[in-house]
């Protein structure tokens, strides 16, 4: 299996993971620090019979992947902050129409064009609430190149399983860093495909749910179902309605199909939690600094523990729940002025002390900075 | 409605939401008649629209249909066509949808020469949002956002599409229905990006604001002011004052995008750069 070990960039691992998960359509518009994802898709997709297109902007890219997905093809786009903002209206469209797709955001410093080549984690809230209205979303954030591969595969699996846009929220450090990656045997990789209606089903309703998970089977265009898809509030037939009851039921179902399945979706990693008095909770590349800091603290006899939230949305409330009562303090380092920490505060509800370590200067948070905070609160 | 056309409509969704006298119904009928005349396979047609009165048409049409975000129909359609080339992709859009918010997608779809047929239900106004001026409202005309007359110069969408690389371009009107059906047939038969500027009427807003009378008067206005390109060639410029041109403006054979991309796939798989 030695030839399955490669040195690669996070952006490259993302493309490898996507293709392994079955992605066969990519539409994008170049933007640092995500550009390598487009470049690699342009090179690799034709090799597997897939399609790459460089669209005229990010709005068009998002539109194109939704169109492609409606034909039954797994589709992805990648971007960074400004492009992510442009995609939001169509991300909302995908959420309401339940079209599976994957959106990668390799975050840069912001707002505006900000710091194109510097790391940041400022899009956490935008990833959750970027588009208008109440809507479901899944957001995953990898902390290493290898994890990027698996997270991307998962993103496609969740998109297909729950008919939802899934966002892979990376940061520049992960996107551009090169690390050793052990790729799995493709035969061992779990790849999920969307559930289709039984072939030849006569009265197919694209939004009729007959399973417990709240996810309706999805036909593809061109298979004879002649179904309608609209961004307007619709009933099970897919046609617009203004019925308050149906509207309410639809929006709640969309939210619930993620909420009720969150134990399937949520992934986090932990270390030394059992006796920890101080927990450092983090995500993305910052989680690496946090882990190192916790290990250094342990060497100095401080009872510190580490949590990495791979799933950011839905927020892994149970991790915070789990440590409340045991630990005294949670430290949340992030490369923004405090976004995910708001969720930690919400769940902790005053049960333990919460401290932040923040940076918005385009530089990484170092293990020493986190360690210093650990010592401060000890 | 002629009985044999009923299969192309979602009869349970009719009657439509359009105002009495709106030209969009005639145009939708023309699209369906063109499809019927060509005997296209119903299950291999996908109709895509943006947002607007015009863009409500796909909801009534019995195909795979997609009602997208405002202005983005062509971008969605591009994804559909490239991902599943066997589908015949038709975009139904309004003048605001296509020329304002969606202008960028229009020129780029034309530039790529991707095999999509775009029918613009052009009523020279924003109907759905109740009568604001569009990029195709003539200069000087009135709209709710142009209470003193429109200062913006308007697009000639056909020229724009041609300049951007569309390989079939024609303009017809709701009044000249048979000719319009012919243009739509040609467009559907054409391999590459085709655009038909189908001049509609919006008596509710454009007509009322500009004192053009009822729907019948507006259709008559089309009859009196439309000049076919072949006739126009022989007329002195002063005779064309205040008139607009209809007809087939352009047809050329150029490599089509999806087919060109298939060559890329072949090249890549043969290991050539
Ligand atoms: C992003 C966005 N901006 C604005 C609107 C509001 N809006 C809906 S339809 C429309 C104009 C439609 O005009 P046109 O395309 O000419 O079609 P018509 O209604 O005249 O047939 C506008 C501005 C919207 N839905 N989305
Ligand atoms: S507002 Fe104008 S375009 Fe819209 S349905 Fe009424 S007449 Fe037609």
From TrEMBL, chain A:
One of its GO terms (molecular function) is 2-oxoglutarate synthase activity. Its EC number is 1.2.7.3. Keywords: Oxidoreductase. PANTHER family: SUBUNIT OF PYRUVATE:FLAVODOXIN OXIDOREDUCTASE, SUBUNIT OF PYRUVATE:FLAVODOXIN OXIDOREDUCTASE-RELATED. The gene is korA_2. It comes from the Bacteria. This is 2-oxoglutarate oxidoreductase subunit KorA. The lineage of its organism: Bacteria, Bacillati, Bacillota, Clostridia, Koleobacterales. Residues 276-370 form the Pyruvate:ferredoxin oxidoreductase core domain. Residues 16-243 form the Pyruvate flavodoxin/ferredoxin oxidoreductase pyrimidine binding domain. It holds the Pfam family PFOR_II.
From TrEMBL, chain B:
It is an enzyme of class 1 (oxidoreductase). Coiled coil: none annotated. Pfam families: TPP_enzyme_C. Transmembrane segments: none annotated. One of its GO terms (biological process) is cellular respiration. This is 2-oxoglutarate oxidoreductase subunit KorB. Keywords: Oxidoreductase. CDD domains: TPP_OGFOR (cd03375). One of its GO terms (molecular function) is thiamine pyrophosphate binding. It comes from Koleobacter methoxysyntrophicus. It comes from the Bacteria. Residues 51-197 form the Thiamine pyrophosphate enzyme TPP-binding domain. Its EC number is 1.2.7.3. InterPro entries: 2-oxoacid:Fd_oxidoreductase (IPR051457), THDP-binding (IPR029061), TPP_enzyme_TPP-bd (IPR011766).
């Amino acid at each position: 299996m030695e030839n399955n070990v490669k040195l690669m960039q996070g952006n490259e691992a993302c493309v490898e993971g996507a293709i392994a998960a079955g992605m066969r359509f990519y539409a994008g518009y170049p933007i640092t620090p995500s550009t390598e994802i487009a470049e690699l898709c342009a090179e690799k997709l034709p090799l597997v019979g897939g399609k790459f297109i460089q669209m005229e902007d990010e709005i068009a890219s998002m539109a194109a992947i939704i169109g492609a997905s409606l034909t039954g093809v797994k589709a992805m786009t990648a971007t960074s902050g400004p492009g992510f903002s442009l995609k939001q209206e169509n991300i909302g469209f995908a959420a309401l129409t339940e079209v599976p797709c994957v959106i990668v955001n390799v975050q840069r410093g912001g707002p505006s064009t900000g710091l194109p080549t510097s790391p940041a984690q400022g899009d956490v809230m935008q990833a959750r609430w970027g588009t208008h209205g109440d809507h479901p979303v899944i957001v995953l954030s990898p902390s290493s190149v290898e994890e990027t591969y698996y997270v991307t595969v998962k993103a496609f699996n969740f998109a297909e399983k729950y008919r939802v846009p899934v966002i892979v929220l990376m940061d520049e450090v992960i996107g551009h860093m090169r690390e050793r990656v052990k790729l799995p045997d493709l035969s061992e990789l779990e790849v999920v495909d969307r559930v289709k209606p039984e072939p030849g089903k006569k009265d197919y309703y694209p939004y009729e749910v007959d399973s417990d998970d709240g996810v309706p089977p999805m036909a593809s265009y061109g298979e004879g179902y002649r179904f309608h898809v609209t961004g307007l509030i619709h009933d099970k037939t897919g046609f617009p309605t203004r019925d308050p009851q149906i509207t309410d039921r639809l929006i709640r179902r969309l939210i619930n199909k993620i909420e009720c399945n969150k134990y399937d979706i949520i992934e986090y990693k932990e270390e030394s939690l059992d006796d920890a008095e101080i927990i450092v909770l983090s995500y993305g590349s910052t989680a690496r600094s946090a882990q190192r800091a916790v290990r250094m603290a342990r060497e100095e006899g401080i009872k510190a523990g580490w949590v990495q939230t791979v799933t950011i949305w839905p927020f892994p409330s149970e991790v915070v729940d789990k440590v409340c009562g045991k630990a005294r303090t949670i430290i949340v380092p992030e490369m923004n002025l405090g976004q995910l920490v708001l969720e930690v505060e919400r769940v902790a509800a005053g049960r333990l002390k919460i401290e932040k370590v923040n940076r918005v200067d385009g530089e990484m948070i170092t293990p020493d900075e986190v360690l210093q905070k650990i010592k401060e609160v000890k | 409605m002629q009985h044999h056309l009923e299969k192309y409509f979602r009869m349970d969704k009719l009657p439509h939401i359009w105002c009495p006298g709106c030209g969009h119904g005639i145009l939708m009928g023309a699209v369906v008649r063109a499809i019927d005349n060509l005997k296209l396979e119903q299950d291999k047609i996908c109709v895509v629209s943006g947002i607007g009165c015009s863009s409500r048409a796909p909801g009534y049409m019995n195909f795979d249909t997609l009602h997208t975000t405002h202005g983005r129909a062509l971008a969605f359609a591009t994804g559909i066509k490239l991902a599943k080339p066997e589908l015949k992709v038709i975009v139904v859009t309004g003048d605001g949808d296509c020329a304002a918010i969606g202008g960028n997608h229009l020129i780029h779809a034309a530039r790529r020469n991707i095999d999509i047929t775009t029918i613009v239900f052009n009523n020279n106004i924003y109907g759905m949002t109740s009568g604001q001026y569009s990029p195709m409202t003539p200069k000087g005309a009135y709209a709710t956002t142009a209470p003193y007359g429109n200062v913006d110069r308007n697009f000639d969408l056909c020229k724009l599409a041609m300049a951007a690389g569309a390989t079939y371009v024609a303009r017809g009107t709701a009044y000249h229905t048979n000719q319009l059906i012919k243009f739509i047939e040609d467009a559907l038969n054409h391999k590459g990006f085709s655009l038909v500027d189908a001049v509609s009427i919006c008596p509710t807003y454009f007509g009322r604001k500009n004192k053009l009378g009822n729907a019948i008067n507006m259709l008559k206005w089309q009859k009196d002011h439309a000049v076919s390109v072949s006739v126009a060639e022989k007329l002195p410029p002063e005779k064309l004052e205040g008139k607009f041109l209809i007809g087939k403006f352009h047809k050329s054979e150029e490599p089509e995008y999806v087919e060109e991309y298939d060559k890329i796939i072949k090249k890549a798989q043969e290991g050539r750069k």
